[in-house]
Amino acid sequence: MNTTDIMQPNNADQKDFWDRLHSEILISNRKLSHGDVLPLMEQNFMFSLFFRGCSQAELLDFQTILNIKDNGYLILVELSALTKSNITGIDIDDLSLHQYLKEVLHKTNNTIGPLITNRIAILITNDNRLSEQEAREDAQAVCQLIMEALSKRFKISASFGVGSIQNINSFHISFIEALSCHHYTAPGKIIMIYDTTKKEGDLAFDYVEAEKHMFDALRLRKNEAFDYFALMMEWIRPMNDDTKRNKILETLVLASYAMRIDNPSVVCFNYMSHAHILMEATEDELIAWAIQSFISITGSVKPQNSIDYTNKIVQATKEYLESHYTDDISLDDIAEQVNISPQYFSKLIKKTTGFNFIDWLSILRVKKAKELLTNSSLTVKEVCFMVGYKDPNYFSRIFKKRIGITPSEFVKSNTFSNKN
Asked: Are residues 296 and 318 in the same domain?
């Protein structure tokens, strides 16, 4: 090897050298101060508490380090300025906003979360549990202070959802309540959970009720969660795309949280990995993507009872249905095939599988329909007849009941997913 080879390293070596040097310079210029670390810890705590889940040990550690009191309420601030070019929603540096809000709220005991799309969560805690009236007055003053500060510094307006006072172990309840308040808010408005009970006749109340039922069903691993989610998607369908994105994101993240409550091994929904799809999809594409994501997060939701295929009657029924699902078959037909009375057959199937014969048949037909719609160029009408239905409208209703979207929307969502 000559001296020229030593003096002139190859391009790969040069790149490696300059990359290392650049990293060292960045590290030397970015020594984290105490003022830098605390905001990052606060944001990590808030994200973990509401989106990932905190163990009791973690919760106690955070409480000590961040001086979080035993009782508090959650304020969810929604900033009105949106830009599609930036997933964070507004042209404001996250840490700068955090530090500014800490200055504004220096007289309160607060913990501030990360800026997600155009929303930021703020936890206000106290040693003593405030009464409803005290909480109203306290939250009104804090929200008003934030509203005026944001207008003065950034020239933007905001809306505020405020949850109820909760113990530290139940702060997530206040967060969900604050989310539900945003179904009533508008820029410059402050809505507290205590006020929403007066709006039961409002359409938004239906959404809030569906949301509550969905989370309850998710925790209990009930299939009804899917039905409630589909209702929520229908409710937001007429809204503008930015509003849809916010509601879809919050629902999917909270659905992921609900699935992890009793089973931490469930993979957390990583919203950032889906950011490009979320921002590029529009109108019905957003709804279709949301439903497919919900299915992925929840496993559609897996029922607690599984089918015992070792049962001879069940096995015979399964084999017959898979061979004749395209035919016009009834419960009596199946009972005759397995040589038992229709009444006994119906009870046996319900007890062994957890659902009735009609459910089983429709699930099988919809499963076959999904395969045909995904892997062929057949029309929805053609698939309808091929899986045993005679009426395309009825087929569409059954498909939507099982999947959450119509066959046409399913085809559209698959086309959109393939493009990405």
From this structure: no
**Average pLDDT across the chain, whole number:** 76
In this predicted model, what pLDDT tens digit does every residue of 55-68 receive, in sequence order?
677 788 888 888 89
Assess whether 413 and 326 both reside in one domain.
yes
pLDDT at site 18:
52
Query: pTM for this one?
Result: 0.46
Number of domains making up the chain:
3
- Angle, to 10 degrees, between the axis of helix 132-154 and the axis of helix 94-104? 130
Shared domain for 97 and 228, answered yes or no, is: no
Overall residue count recorded for the chain in this entry? 420
Q: Are residues 143 and 61 in the same domain?
A: yes
pLDDT tens column, 378-403? 899 999 999 999 999 999 888 887 77
